Queue: 2 jobs
Job 1
Amino acid sequence: MGEVLIEVAPLYAKQRNAVFDSARHVFIEASTKSGKTTGCLVWQLDQISKKRGHHWWVAPITLQAKIAFDRAINMVPEALVKRIDRRLQVIELRTGSVWSFKSGDRPDNLYGEDIQSGVIDEASRCREEVWTAVRTCTTKPRSPLRVIGNVKGRKNWFYTMCRKAEAGEPGLGYHKLTIFDAVEGGVIHEDEIAEAQRDLTENIFKELYMAEASDYEGNPFGAHHIERAERPNLALGSPVCFGVDLGKARDWTVLIGLNDSGDVCAFERFQHNWNITSNLISSIVGDIPCLVDSTGLGDPILDALQANDKSNFIGFKFTSSSKQQLMEGLALDLQQSVFQLPSGVLSSELKAFEYKYERGLVKYGAPGGMHDDCVCALALSRAQFRKRSEIVWWR
């Protein structure tokens, strides 16, 4: 076929230098919104225009690969497209090349093909087996790879490989793109920096926007802040407020009470049916102000607790947005060292707690197979404690 003009998004200088580095394998640690996805799509389309064959884009899961797939469809000239398979996320070109957008959730399925170029997206969230499999597929044709992602702690293969590349290991290239690079390149407005610093914790801002690894992998609170707040036992004094996270299925119901200094002075954790749970909470809390998880099945429990004009029980519904605000309030309190907590299951849950950045949202929770009931109860109690100063920040 005749020549077809391919118009692509313009890249700012640092973005272009990163993706078009002459090294065969290039590792790019980048902030969110810095243009790493767009840059690598432009780079891979350039590779496709030069080399016939299979070209892969691999992300941790299918939905993340679909984000790049949808963008790629809009980038490829219609005259070049032979067929688009939206189910398999494949763009087949009239030149004989096939651009596939794959999931890395089953790395064994990635072996066997010789590919002419590859991109591993969200690499810090991919298993190391993905890197091994895709790297193997480039061996025979000696094809180039671009490995991109946000920074997420230090204990992952992407961080390790970035340090090797940064140290100048042969065949590897390394680049970092921060939010300031994106602002300078005209990708985002500088107001985004101030908003992100205001809305996010120090650890998350450093990782997501400055591409700097935190001291504790994926933890929004910071291990040293948690350890600084730890004490061997509960604090003295009587509770002036409570936070309650209601257990569902195999989870725990947790009550945490704070004294007039805001320190944890009461801690209860149990698993019972709803009737017993409601009675226990009522007897422990009494007339003290209490913020209660009222999400889903928590609604009837809250209704029972509020019976007989018990207006001291206040409901809190967990959503992605409200949980983010709740946890960032707790993180700020920990970082400012404004309260104390007992070591044990509570501090263990805090240290295991993590955040994930998915589809433009920061999501908080416990790692798979673990609980975050204590963390949620503590965050609720701290929110209720702040309400004593009439700062009803979660509404």
Job 2
Amino acid sequence: CADGAIICPGSYKGHLQGVATDATKGEAASIFWSFTVALVKTDLKGQIVKQIEVPTHHGDLTWHDGKVYVAVNLGKFNEEAGKADSWVYVYDENELALLSKYPVQEAVHGAGGIEFHNGHFFVVGGLPAGYEENYVYEYDADFKFITRHVLKSGYTKMGIQTAAFINGFWWFGCYGDPRVLLKADENLQFLDKFDVDWSIGIAQLS
């Protein structure tokens, strides 16, 4: 941001899996950070407002209408179908109290990221070696499965970690080797791949 980096203080057993802000209601006031086994809420100066411990593996997250939605996999990542256990956990934005859980078992390689756009939720995640495309799983507002989108991105190691819809485009951060950023249009048609590392979170401030 204009004033420099925003630092999330503290030390956590996991690593940063994703970030989200409440910017869709206007100028952002809060940042939410997912550290695999911890959720943290800070203000825009990096002051901790609330933090909680959570089950591993909490991944990327999104904010919508006063709630924080986190992609969670309680099983294995990057394996063929049958070894993942994919969920979305929903938290209150103020106290980070757990409100509900929704199964998203269609994300068969492990749910790792989530974004809300145009009334629907979109879940991304792991990918076994050998695949030449990524997958985006679309759900309605009640997490009823709608469809699986195929992203013609080529193989990215461990799939997609972070997802965001900003300024009319989809952005997907990948660990990979090298770590890459994928760009798609609103209909999830693949557009481009960039050799930059946005794998630990993509979020909007305004």
